[in-house]
């Protein structure tokens, strides 16, 4: 395949996405209802924390606003995955029916083409909920705000976003080998668990949820940059690098799966 | 009345579910992870409190309650709304309407068949594991016998709610959003994500006037032996009341709706 520049890919991406958004604009009621449901979902998440702290003073030493910080952070971190990688959810069906083969014949990167086909507008509700919760917690915790913290926040959110994307991609890549049945439903549940600090686990489980299923990187480690600025662990600083490496791994697994795909013969 | 036509559909539902053995196993695995997370989370939460019993719930009570509620949720989550939405969008609903049996009845027995399989393959193993972990904290006695009809009634209520929500999809094509909003409301107000015991009084009173608590709270209270055998009678009464109400509401709404809508491709 010819090497293409990133600008070229970006231009193609915008073209494909525009078509998808045009289609979605025909279903305005769907957009409103879906985003309303998303926000309702996160209000319910907020209520759960509120109820816990109505009955208990803290969670493993973390107070109410710190818990909300983790929660808001994880919601924002999941938004890029929700918006950009949504088409992975159609993969089981595409692989089983044989429709996936059409992506293999295009003179363009298969992963890129497949993923660019759908832009999920449901992510907006999540983003809004995440920003509101994070800002609320940020103000209550009276964390200083400067251009440096803003830059760090963007860096840490990107790192966390990459981890979530990589986890879901890796889960989606299993679909190619199992022919239409994947681990995505299993993995996506970690999105909800990542809002809890990893300190509630001890020993083996902490290692498991940090290195094998790296949900600690979706909210806990990057948030420490702001919650405990005096003692930022080394893993927090390394998280962007580990995230990129992990994403690369998931990308290669996905591509290897797509290459081995042979269609259904019809 | 011929019973055979119902058992045939029931059997078809069971066989259909058997196709998804692997996905049932993954759901079971997901439940185990949920158990691990809930166990650690609530242990940390209870550790912060000076009391062992908060609002009448000990750590073991809370954990059992939440894990079993999630298990029931996974078991009963059979996408009635999703499949109704699909039947409406692709027009195949018309084939269901001309059958010599009411659509609502056919679907119910299909789902009941699927439930029997997931009860054996998800609920029973999770129940055994959670019993072992808590050192057999669930009393093994008449409460288990009473739990079964309570679970069946709960299933009927949640089915009629699903059917009602699925009918809304006749008017809007936003199946995902509507289903999501329903799930959030049901899970929160039924006490499945945080037990009703932790609700402030006013919110608990609101919850008690809604049908959702009859789906999770009643069967779980009966199973965990939090009520005496005599006290279960009014609980069954409440469940039967909601079955009656939801039966009428969902039936009337459906009959009104199919008169007024047009279905694609008819």
Report, as a whole number of angstroms, the end-to-end distance of chain B.
32 Å
The quaternary structure here is: heterodimer
Range of strand content of chain A = under 5%
The pLDDT mean of chain B sits at: 87
Number of strands of chain B: 0
Strand content bin of chain B: under 5%
Uncertain spans of chain A: none
- SSE pattern of chain B: HHHHHHHHHHH
Name the chain pair whose interface involves the most residues.
A-B, 39 and 38 residues
Mean pLDDT of chain A: 90
Structural class of chain B: mainly alpha
Q: Sum up the overall morphology of chain A in one term.
A: globular
Biggest β-sheet of chain B: count, sense, barrel? none
Model regions low in confidence, pLDDT < 50 over at least 5 residues of chain B: none
* Main β sheet profile of chain A: none
Into how many domains do the coordinates of chain B divide? 1
Structural class of the secondary structure composition of chain A? Answer: mainly alpha
Identify the overall geometry of chain B: globular
Structure summarized in a few sentences:
The complex is a heterodimer of chains A (266) and B (266). Chain A is an all-alpha fold and 266 residues long.
Structure write-up:
The complex is a heterodimer of chains A (266) and B (266). The longest helix of chain A has 32 residues, at 147-178. Chain A has helices at residues 6-25, 28-55, 64-84, 91-97, 101-104, 110-116, 123-140, 147-178, 184-193, 204-212, 220-227, 234-260. In chain A, 36% of the residues are buried. Chain A is mostly helical. In chain A, helix 2 runs antiparallel to helix 3 (64-84), helix 8 (147-178) runs parallel beside helix 12 and helix 11 runs antiparallel to helix 12 (234-260). Chain A starts with 5 loop residues before the first helix and ends in a 6-residue tail after the last helix. In chain B, helix 2 packs across helix 6, helix 4 packs antiparallel against helix 8 (175-189) and helix 7 runs antiparallel to helix 10 (217-223). Chain B has helices spanning 4-18, 21-47, 59-76, 80-90, 93-97, 103-133, 142-168, 175-189, 201-208, 217-223, 232-260. Chain B is mainly alpha-helical and 266 residues long. The two termini of chain B are 32 Å apart. The model of chain B has no long low-confidence stretch (mean pLDDT 87). Chain B has one domain. The radius of gyration of chain B is 19 Å and the shape is globular. The A-B interface holds A 27, 29-30, 33-38, 40-41, 44, 47-48, 51-52, 54-61, 122, 178, 181, 183, 185-186, 189-190, 193, 196, 199-202, 205 and B 22-23, 26-27, 29-30, 33-34, 36-37, 40-41, 43-49, 54-55, 172-174, 176-178, 180-181, 184-185, 187-188, 193-194, 198-200.
